[in-house]
Fold this sequence. Notes:
Layout: E1 14-17, E2 22-25, E3 33-36, H1 39-59
Antiparallel strand pairs: 1-2, 2-3
Amino acid sequence: MKKLKEVIHQYDVVFDSNGAGYTVTVPKLPGLVTEGDNLQEARGMAKDAIRCYLEALLKDHTLSSSKTRREKIKVAV
């Protein structure tokens, strides 16, 4: 199987104290929720959850493994 080029992704992560630790959400990744008993564990869980989320998108061909390309296109009306 062909190995894909590794790409680094960055996301803002929200850590909410829940009394027993931290609940973690990632606003740009709908439905991603994880938690940890302390901030360090919550960070590790967030990294793992984001990796799994992105791998699922890649498998489903929803996320391109190449960089995003933006262009301006002129259209006459």
